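Batch manifest, entry 17 of 40.
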Amino acid sequence: TLIQMSDIPTLKQITIGDDSFANVRTFSITNLEALKSVTIGKRCCTLSKQSPVQECVEGRFSIANCPNLTTLSIGSLSFSDYHFLDLTDLPALNSLSIAAVCFKYGTYFKLECTHLLPLFPALPQLLKIRLGNYAFQYCQQVVLEGSSAVTEDVDLPSLQSISLGSGTLECDGRDDRKSIPMEPYSFNNTIVMKGV
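Output type: structure tokens
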């Protein structure tokens, strides 16, 4: 099931209550120029309403090209069995809060912004990132960067706080995720933070 919100020129706020969209496996928000905030309640967009969360092989949440979005807040256990979170081209974003057990099995978390203007910070407003307990626990790749397509400079000039709860970003050390079957094991886990 798919939810797609795009090209609604006057939409300023999205608020989703607890326990909504249980069977949605793709949630996309794109090209909403007036959008300022997205608030998603607890246990949304998940088949697992409580711990322990069951792993699924799908699930993608993305927000792209929302130039005035300042806050994104996701309640506990929402998207808990999703594999991908992709946040792209959100230059006004100043607060990202993802509560406990969200994206527990998420293999990929990307926060990226590219500008075509030289010498312009790509994520100039980002002040704080908060990931709750066991959010992205088994994540295999985290990319947090801003870059200029012209100068290749990377800049997060306002970032003041990154708060990670217990068990967050442990990376995936389960035996079936090993890329080399003998010691020393090699896991395809990557965390990239540029310009912080």
